[in-house]
Amino acid sequence: MTINGSAVTVDLVLLTIRAGALHVLLIRRGIPPFKGRWALPGGFVLSGEDLEDAARRELREETGLDPTAGHLEQLGTYGTPDRDPRGRVFTVAYLALLPDLPAPVAGSDAAGADWLAIEGLEDLAFDHDRILADGVERARAKLEYTPLATAFCPPEFTIAELRGVYETVWRARIDARNFHRKVTGADGFVEATGQSVTRERGRPAQLFRRGPAALLHPPLLRPGS
Questions:
Q1: What pLDDT is stored for residue 52 in this prediction?
Q2: Residue range 108-120, pLDDT digits in tens
Q3: What is the DSSP letter of 32?
């Protein structure tokens, strides 16, 4: 898609938790510019194509992952004149929060695709360092006032597993009892399934699923905020 001679692309910040660390899905570019560099999945919007449809299509084409597997929302628009050496290109970035998924399969113009830990990650292609940083901060902020932490969880989870999501995304330790009280006391955040599970020789823990709430009342604030 072009607007007044400028091209429009979509880029995706796809976050998940693997091995206790926050990871982002990256593709290794197989073509210039930035051939061989890691980049966020994305590509040009086709003529007559809706932006979100383009984001979902690029996810399928470049990684083989199911675009309906988790939460997807628009993150922001980026249009610095020199962000793409091919010319004036505006990009609309999307943020996705996903449960742990298998390794992606590279396709389209990607030479490879993989989940990489965000800690210490830098020197991505284009302005993707900035877009990734914005996406991570958006995720951290939204965990305070929405139930989107459950997007990192399987359909049924324990409160301890949900706490692990918050600790990983926020990079902070959280008091277990206080967290349990706040989560179960927040209207519509989680719902008990009536089932329990035993994890790694521990005591049986109650299973929960996401409740109907869109916003958390009261919010869960990051430690130190």
A1: 92
A2: 565 688 899 999 8
A3: S
Number of folded domains in the chain? 2
Report the distance separating Cα 160 and Cα 165, nearest Å.
9
Question: Residues 6 or more apart from 7 whose CB is under 8 A from it?
Answer: 1, 44, 84, 86, 87, 88, 89, 90
Alpha-carbon distances, residue 150 vs 13, 158, 159, 183 (angstroms): 18, 11, 10, 11
> Which CATH number does the domain housing residue 100 bear?
3.90.79.10
CA distances from 185 to 79, 105, 190 (A): 43, 41, 9
Q: Which range marks the domain in which residue 206 is found?
A: 146-210
Q: Tally Cβ neighbours within 10 Å of residue 146.
A: 18
CA distance 187 to 185: 6
User: In which band, very low, low, confident or very high, does the pLDDT at 50 lie, cut at 50, 70 and 90?
Assistant: very high
> How far is residue 70's CA from residue 225's CA, in Å, rounded to a whole number?
28
Tokens of residue 165, six digits: 């999501």
Phi, psi of 187 (to 5 degrees): -60, 115
Alpha helices (H) along 69-188:
128-145, 159-170, 176-185
CA–CA gap between residue 155 and residue 207 (Å, rounded): 10
Judgement on whether residues 44 and 125 belong to the same structural domain of the protein: yes
Taking the model in full, what pTM does it have?
0.90
Helix (H, G, I), strand (E, B) or coil at 200: coil
Query: What pLDDT does residue 102 have?
Result: 62
Residue 70 pLDDT exceeds 70: yes
pLDDT of 51 reads 94
